[in-house]
Description:
This is GDSL-like Lipase/Acylhydrolase. By secondary structure, this protein is of the alpha/beta class.
Amino acid sequence: MGTLRYVAIGDSFTEGVGDELPDGRVRGWADLVAEGWAASGADVEYANFAIRGKLVQPIVDEQLEPALALRPTHLSFNGGGNDMLRPRTSVSRVVAAFEHVLRRCDEEGVQLIVLSGANPSGQLPLRRVIQRRGDLLSAAVSAALADRPDVVRAFNWPDRELSSPPYWSEDRLHMNSRGHHRVAARVLTSLGVEPPAAWWSLPPLPDVGARGTAYYREHVGPWIQRRLTGTSSGDGRHPKYAAWTRLDSAG
Length: 251
């Protein structure tokens, strides 16, 4: 087996927000996939261009070509979660972004891995709106890929267990470490790699999240403020791995 060159593009879901390490760095499912792939015996080179807060079109405009310029063998893509939280969302525009990524991967001979995000709607304000938009987007992306069995799929939106509170961080919008491990297990399984069984459901984490007005003050308020000021949580941030990081089968 030759070296697998895996690059990830996306937003906070793919960056790994919610799976914070003791030193403050974020890990997340994509890092775990690279590690799990290497542990299976493959030599893996890994890069991750994902930046939190990005809408789907900036992901494509800013991350796709630099990622392809690395000449990967595999590229994972997820986007649209931040679009769904905006007052006006065009599902067709998000689907068009997926189709563009697929077309460019075809042109470059890159294996595409498509993910849908996990479903946070049960814990969020406007849960019915978010659920409906997510259902529409998930169905539209699935339909767009219906005649492409060669595309690797790891659809997390329909996973009802993953949508339950024990898999989410304090802000209720990003998965915690349990959630990221479960997504990584699904991606590895889709790639034909057996993940550690525990990744599907790690022990529950302590429930320390803010409730009631404290939750709105700590998490919803800052989000609204960014919308009003036209700023993003990703402003000024750079990809955590914009060049290859090597993980070999020896660990």
